[in-house]
């Protein structure tokens, strides 16, 4: 008898008498076959999905999620920022189909109808109409009761703190995450005034990991931007140097139409002397937001890269072209399908023993 290390005693191998074949009816001694080693089952790793910010480009999140589901991948954790928070909340709450139908129904006219402009708040848009849309599908839901683990990111006004919203009202958390400064009013939650999370963490990979994901996939809506900022080390302000291309463009500007009446006291419109002059306030704000988000995204993703990054080809998609949902969703689907072999490889490699 001997101690087998499992708390049990075991003796020598049992030898049994086995009937032999043939007329002689002889017999032989044989040992019991060894017991097979217990099979070890691998535990499926938890898959996290980080959905980045990018306004109308965020419709591509819908296509990416659909492609992942069609490939048999189960998402256990969703972390969203800005438009990624809205899509992620609908997905975690089982309302992705309703969101897709809404996005496909948008036209330029309907998009404008959803914007309730005002001048008395901290932003140009009150956001009440958008809140009502969210309430229709997610009203009364709390983050901690969603079928899929979910969190969103916001930025605290004044301090710049990165706030992770992991409990409480889903609608208010989403509104806080997409409250773009100057466009939407900040949202007050638990005594803090919150605004767009893209200011601090545009693609919340860190949040998905902190929520327990073993493998983190991310959808980066700014990964296809072709113009990358650099440093111009020597730039002067010599007004005597005239850009030949700019001068030629000025010469080609059309003259004022003759049909405009030459009324006394009415100034005639003049062409811009500088064709490179920036556009209106909305154009400048969008461009500034694009630059800021791109710089922050690259910095954050370099410090904590995802296991697989999905980069939809969205360079030609405007930030506020919400009416191009069908095209955007398809671009997200194509980008996710392209990365499926790598995703399956990473998920298989991350399988853990049960």
TrEMBL record:
Residues of the signal peptide: none
Motif (DGA/G): 196-198
Occurrences of domain PNPLA (ranges): 49-209
Residue positions of the active site: 82 (nucleophile), 196 (proton acceptor)
Keyword field contains Lipid metabolism: yes
One Pfam family matching this protein: Patatin
Gene Ontology biological process: lipid catabolic process
Family annotation (InterPro entries): Acyl_Trfase/lysoPLipase, NTE, PNPLA_dom
Annotated keywords: Hydrolase, Lipid degradation, Lipid metabolism
Alphabetized PANTHER family for the sequence: NEUROPATHY TARGET ESTERASE/SWISS CHEESE D.MELANOGASTER, NTE FAMILY PROTEIN RSSA
Protein name: Patatin
Originating species: Methylobacterium nodulans (strain LMG 21967 / CNCM I-2342 / ORS 2060)
């Amino acid at each position: 008898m001997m101690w087998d290390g499992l708390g049990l005693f075991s003796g020598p191998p049992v030898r049994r008498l086995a009937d032999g074949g043939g007329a002689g009816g002889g017999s032989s001694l044989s040992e019991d076959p060894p017991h097979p080693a217990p099979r070890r089952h691998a535990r499926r790793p938890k898959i996290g999905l980080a959905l980045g910010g990018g306004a109308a480009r965020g419709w591509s999140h819908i296509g990416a999620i659909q492609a992942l589901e069609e490939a048999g991948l189960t998402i256990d954790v969703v972390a969203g920022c800005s438009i990624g928070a809205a899509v992620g909340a609908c997905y975690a709450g089982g309302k992705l189909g309703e969101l897709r139908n809404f996005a496909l129904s948008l036209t330029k006219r309907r998009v404008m109808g959803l914007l309730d402009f005002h001048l008395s708040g901290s932003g140009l848009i009150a956001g009440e109409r958008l809140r009502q849309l969210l309430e229709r599908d997610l009203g009364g839901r709390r983050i901690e009761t969603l079928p899929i683990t979910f969190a969103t990111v916001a930025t605290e006004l004044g301090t710049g703190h990165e706030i992770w919203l992991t409990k409480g009202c889903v609608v208010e958390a989403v509104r806080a995450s997409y409250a773009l400064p100057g466009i939407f009013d900040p949202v007050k939650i638990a005594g803090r005034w919150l605004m767009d999370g893209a200011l601090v963490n545009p693609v919340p990979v860190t949040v998905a990991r902190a929520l327990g994901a073993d493998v983190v996939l991310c959808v980066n809506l700014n990964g296809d931007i072709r113009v990358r900022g650099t440093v111009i080390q020597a730039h002067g302000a010599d007004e005597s140097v005239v850009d030949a291309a700019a001068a030629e463009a000025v010469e080609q500007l059309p003259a004022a139409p003759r049909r405009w009446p030459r009324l006394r006291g009415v100034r005639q419109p003049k062409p811009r002397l500088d064709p490179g002059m920036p556009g209106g306030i909305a154009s400048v704000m969008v461009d500034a937001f694009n630059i800021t988000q791109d710089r922050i995204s690259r910095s954050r993703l370099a410090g904590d890269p995802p296991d697989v990054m999905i980069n939809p080809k969205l360079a030609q998609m405007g930030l506020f072209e919400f009416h191009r949902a069908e095209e955007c969703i398809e671009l997200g689907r194509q980008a996710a399908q392209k990365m499926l072999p790598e995703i399956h490889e990473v998920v298989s490699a991350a399988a853990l023993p049960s």
